[in-house]
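Ticket reopened. Same input as before:
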Amino acid sequence: MTKKFKIAYMPGDGIGQDVLEASKLVLEKADFNAELIPLDIGFTIFEKEGDPLPERTIEALKECDAALFGAITSKPRSDPSVQSVEKKFGTTYRSPIVRLRQVFDLYSNMRPSKSYEGNPLNFRKIDGTVPNIDIVTFRENTEGLYAGIEFESLIPELKKLPNFASFQKRTGAKDEDIRVSCRVFSKGGCDRIIRKAFDYAKETGRNKVCVVHKANVIRATDGLFLETAKNIAGEYPNVEWWNENIDATAMWLMKRPEEYSVIVSSNMFGDIITDQAAMLTSGLGFAASASTSKDFGVFEPNHGSAPKYAGQDKVNPIAALKSMSLMWEWLGLTNLSEKLEKAIGQNVIEAKVRTYDMGGNSSTTEVAKDIARIFESL
Ligand code: NAI
Ligand code: MG
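Engineering reply: fixed in the latest deploy. New output:
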């Protein structure tokens, strides 16, 4: 008997529902012994209960091996619907995704960006050639500018700093006109994400890592990131590595994306370059991610809830299916993961059943059914 996995099923809001429903069509065809556990997360549940990530969801997740997640709707604090719910329940809205990452210490956000043969959305260089892109980015997922250490009014300690005093003098900004978001890195935080990227490069035979930072300007935090990378790289003599400033990476990704293989970066930089890499490899309909700790993982498409398409059975399910493939890979079920990757590739090449973003007019369900059919035949 193979192990029976407990998989959390969290569609969330909007098209999160459409794409996870479609993923089930492939799941049903897989030799995967699993119980799906539906759990609440997102804006709809926030409106009902005042919390977008209820305690019962967190408790249930602790009993699961992994989670499939769709997408959620997030609205700014100034949005009247946020304000009325906050007033009704006496709570403050906090992103359930950021909270999930922090509660479960999902420090590694892995995002593959791969071009599929025959995809009309593949990036074309100015000379007309279509580069073969296959990049896997490891983005630190719990620290840095997204850690939520922010001040909307000035703290007295800050005013005592000489650098801050000169900033205020130079800009003439009054105390009440200043807001602060802190970029906090820890040595352990840098160490584990960089190690993860080097381990992956070694284990997959990619043997090539680019470390992305801005250490010449953001000296304290990115200085630590780069220094840590230099130390770790010494332990991997067979992995070729180099480092780049984030702005240079943004440029070279457009010019010669085929030269990157594994990239590792901090939270915000990793977020930005993976969106860029996603557009070079067919956009949000294809972008998936694995957010993992040592012993738990959340697998999700990178896109949001796209409210204008919600419930229309219209959007591309491939990003959600790729997330499921990443889940299988992480669970050690590489045969399932590779089979699904192949099925997606074949659907793209066959060019018959495609959603609107790829120039087709098939529905979410039709594309998922087609991929499930190919999957079953492999
Ligand atoms: P979005 O990713 O939801 O949609 C932007 C546009 O991308 C869509 O209008 C659509 O044209 C296209 N698109 C997205 N997914 C697609 C798919 N599977 N197939 C084909 N086309 C697709 O981003 P947007 O509009 O900025 O945000 C909508 C809501 O989603 C917001 O409330 C935002 O906060 C939230 N969001 C949630 C995320 C998450 O749950 N991880 C990530 C990004 C945004
Ligand atoms: Mg993003």
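The mean pLDDT is 96. The pocket of magnesium ion (ligand 2) is lined by residues 271, 275 (CB under 6 Å). Please confirm and we'll close it.
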